[in-house]
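Researcher: Next sequence.
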Amino acid sequence: MYHVINGGNQQKESYQTFIDYCCRAFNYIRRNYIILANLLKIMACSDISGMNVESLNFVEKNLMLELSETDAVIQFTQLINHSLKSAFPRINFFFHTLAQVMTSTAANSARNNDTVLSFVPQLYTQETDGKIKRVRVISFEKRFLPSKVYLYKVEVIRVSETLSTYVYRSFNEFNELYIKLRRRFPTVAFLALSPGTKMRSNVREVAQRRMVDVESFLRYLFTLSPEVCHCDLVYTFFHLILRDSDIDSYIDTEEMQADAHRNQCEVYLKIQFNDNKHQSQLSIFIGHVKHLGLLSTGQAPDAYVKTYIRPDPQNLTKRKTQLYYDIMDGEHVLSTRVLEISVWNCGGLMDNNKMYMLYIPLQKLKNQPEDRKGNRILEGWFAFDKNI
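Model: Next structure:
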């Protein structure tokens, strides 16, 4: 499961996003515990098998209601990390993947008509479309048809046309062409298309690896005899269909908006201020940072976060891990101070360098309403001002 979340063995941003969503759901359940408890009590009173008072106590204990949201998130994150290292989720995921592969295999076996392609309603030939001079793979793009799929953009150059045409085909469609060409020409040694993986394959990393296989397959195909490379199956495959002429309509709008901000580094913060009679306290919880840039070497940074309350010429407010500040004059600090947050790369002894920086005026906390415990909370994603 860890491998699927990250798209490989190396931890990536998607792993932190997964944990973030899990923690949000966990805290949402905690906030609505009364509703959940009432439902469980009704189920226990209805003689539902396995539901009793012990069940309610079990749920209450595991929701960690005695902890604050920040502490509960920390504990819950540790539980997620522990569960991902356990053998039971791996076994469960293996059986889910096996069932998916079996279903996909059964669907592919249903395509038993070797004379036509499943995604083009009729056959086309060299006479109807014009002789193909050359084809080449340009790139691959993510589309929704309606589910997510990676399509390979292929340039088709014909002898009788001055302008190139572009078709978009998925790896499964290339594989279908390969299988049906082999069945029609059993004596021809076609260059095989590598499936890439038997696990989750609809991810960007796999699509990028498969692009090399697709390009090699097409290059080799057009070195074969005209009987093979100019047969009706090949021309049907490269015939323009509705999808090719209206490819931009298959883009998810939310996905486009996400791509627009994909390179902007952001940090998730929960800033909490409590002003009591004796002493005020400012606490800062840093969830995680996303969209961190790579180092000049191409490697991921070994990042950590520093915080200061500015102005602070002597850096007395510097914190790295324990982000709590005891403040004598809370209202004055909120009105005049600025929270500085910076991301650093640990490059070794005396070789740390600053990567990103962000300033948040603490005045923003004064505009937040107080909760029943007297806390003012500023929470959410904050974009870094600059890339150092």
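Model: The longest strand covers residues 132-144. Residues 87-109 form the longest helix (23 residues).
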